[in-house]
Specification:
- The chain is built from eight helices and 16 strands.
- Strand 7 and strand 8 form a beta hairpin.
- 42% of the residues are buried.
């Protein structure tokens, strides 16, 4: 029995982690956070259906977003070196297709943040150089780290309506990609690391902790200190880097006495809170590499 999920006759890309959804492709990575409050809404669905609906929203957005990026033949053609991707437009179409897929007779309710990075190139000094198109709506995050300098060269900015209520796409939300998504271009060099993360990471670890953890993990892998990971299909150490960051965030999330970024923000809002924030924690890690051949 095939237990995989399909939409429009195609298997839905990516995977779910609780309410989060993540996707990793050759030049596209993303992390969406389905808003868990939908699981408490009395809309006539059994609990498992309500939970599935919010996961479905986060994953379908990523699925259709990746498909739209692939379908832009003007950008993916090797004949036109000047065409630029339009990731906000891809996200808008993904949003519209998700609405269509979750409408009557299905009536799947839910909302999700959206955050992704698309690797492309531009001509610089008569040669192609890597450039990253980063798009964000909500409070998930894309972070670009240069390991050789141990520094952040780019990060997205969180978008909130108010504290702990991020911008989001879906049922009853006023937000749309064309009106609210932010896209930035980031010049890369070979060896740069790109992370797409749900807020389960950034609510529990400060930026310097993320950088230190990622650089340390990557150097361990480079030095051969880490045993072979059979899930590392590309042999670049990125699954290990992602897993180590998830572990570090989970330690804080489960510590009722830890100091955390989420606790700090809550106190600033006048809320009494201590410890980490229990949440789904999702990371996709990628490295910028020149294709062989």
């Amino acid at each position: 029995m095939d237990r995989r999920s399909y939409v429009g006759g195609k298997m839905i890309r990516g995977i779910t982690n609780g309410d989060d959804a993540v996707l990793a492709g050759n030049n596209f990575i993303g992390a969406n956070d389905g808003v868990g409050a939908w699981a408490t809404k009395p809309k006539g669905h059994a609990a498992v259906r309500k939970a599935d609906s919010l996961r479905l929203w986060s994953r379908l957005i990523l699925h259709f977003w990746a498909l739209e990026a692939e379908r832009d033949t003007s950008v993916n053609s090797t004949l036109d070196q000047t065409a630029e991707p339009e990731p906000v437009e891809y996200l808008q179409r993904a949003y519209e297709r998700t609405i269509e897929a979750t409408s009557t007779p299905n009536e799947w309710l839910g909302t999700t943040t959206a955050c992704a990075a698309l690797l492309h190139h531009h001509i610089k000094n008569s040669s192609p150089e890597p450039i990253l198109y980063v798009t964000n709506l909500g409070d998930s995050q894309v972070l670009v780290i240069r390991p050789r300098d141990q520094e952040v060269i780019y990060k997205t900015t969180e978008q909130w309506h108010w504290f702990d209520c991020p911008r989001q796409l879906g049922t009853n939300s006023p937000d749309t990609p064309k009106d609210n998504a932010i896209m930035n271009k980031v010049d890369l060099v070979e060896g740069d690391l790109v992370l797409a993360m749900s807020d389960g990471v950034v609510d529990n670890l400060w930026e310097h902790e993320v950088v230190q953890n990622v650089v340390d993990s990557f150097r361990k892998w480079e030095s051969g200190e880490v045993s072979e990971d059979h899930n590392d299909r590309n042999g670049n150490g990125m699954p290990y880097v992602a897993q180590e960051l998830v572990k570090a965030a989970r330690v804080i999330a489960e510590d009722p006495f830890a100091e955390s970024p989420f606790m700090e923000r809550a106190v600033e809002e006048g809320l009494a809170m201590e410890g980490g924030k229990l949440d789904d924690i999702s990371v996709v890690a990628a490295i910028c590499k020149r294709r062989k051949g």
